[in-house]
Design goal:
Strand order of the largest sheet: 3-2-1-4-5-7-6
Number of strands: 7
CATH class: Alpha Beta
Helix content: 40-55%
Radius of gyration: 19 Å
Number of helices: 9
Number of domains: 1
Strand content: 15-25%
Structural class: alpha/beta
Distance between the termini: 34 Å
Shape: globular
Order of helices and strands: HEHEHEEHEHHEHHHE
CATH topology: Rossmann fold
Length: about 280
């Protein structure tokens, strides 16, 4: 994991939202939010909100008076989310998960969809999550299963590697870098959380077309910058190859592929040192 997380900037966030949002993130966003019981929740912090896929569902599920703070490290991602959801009942803030600018023991619920994998110091991020949650507050996050268990991205990674055989870009290995439930349990419990439960969730990603998915994978992620820096002439060739392989495996239009992720739920307990 690089010390500086990959940046979602420029044209990437808009393409990410348009071509990957409905296909990749929406199925897991609905799953994640339905696990929350809104009764008694007065404040929620979302980490790595991206373009707001989870945020929208949170706002709909929470009672109107509940405070919802949605944060992301990348301001360009937040800009897309704010454009989609100009809702005054959502507070959008740029924030580093490793150094949250919020008071101790404040939030009832912390949610993070597919964000922990990008954080350089995951233990610090979970320690910060623990700090800002109230005693009895809940942690809810998810991470992708193995790259091989998300075969559309496995195919994309293989194709990209074929175009750069001596030094393949490794971006796709970052989001799929935390597939081990034991590792997740250890990280969460070492941060102080208790009653850690991990569930395997299987979904189908439904994209309008293989072409759209190829566009999202290659131009809606930080991999795009790597390709442009190395050899921009390869981009249309890679997209054509990826579209062909995805269509062959999962259908051209719509494109439907299996996906797997882990969902982690835990609670903040009060330790002696917290007093």
């Amino acid at each position: 994991m690089p010390n500086n997380p990959p940046a979602f900037v420029g044209s990437i966030p808009e393409i990410y939202e348009r071509f990957l949002g409905p296909y990749l993130f929406e199925p897991f966003a609905t799953d994640l939010v339905t696990r929350i019981d809104p009764a008694g929740i007065e404040s929620v912090l979302e980490i790595a909100c991206g373009t707001g896929r989870v945020t929208r569902h949170l706002r709909e599920r929470l009672k109107e008076s509940a405070r919802l703070v949605a944060t992301d490290l990348n301001p360009d991602m937040i800009a897309i989310a704010k454009k989609i959801m100009p809702d005054l009942r959502i507070e959008w803030e740029q924030a580093d998960a490793q150094a949250l600018a919020f008071d101790d023991n404040y939030f009832d619920q912390l949610v993070c969809q597919f964000g922990l994998m990008f954080v350089p110091d995951k233990a610090m991020a979970l320690a910060e999550a623990y700090r800002v949650l109230k005693p009895g507050g809940s942690l809810l996050l998810n991470t992708w299963h193995r790259l091989e268990n998300n075969p559309a991205f496995y195919i994309a990674d293989q194709i990209v590697s074929e175009y750069f055989p001596t030094d393949p870009p490794l971006f796709f290995h970052i989001p799929f870098s935390m597939p081990e439930p034991r590792e997740l349990t250890s990280l969460v419990e070492n941060a102080g959380f208790s009653n850690c439960r991990i569930h395997l969730v299987k979904k189908e990603g439904i994209s309008t077309s293989a072409a759209d998915t190829a566009m999202g994978m290659l131009e809606g992620t930080p991999l795009y910058m790597t390709i442009i820096e190395r050899n921009p002439a390869l981009l249309p060739l890679m997209k054509k190859d990826l579209e062909s392989q995805l269509a062959k495996r999962f259908g051209a239009a719509p494109m439907i592929s299996p996906m797997q992720a882990w969902v982690v739920e835990a609670e903040k307990t009060v330790r002696p040192e917290d007093h």
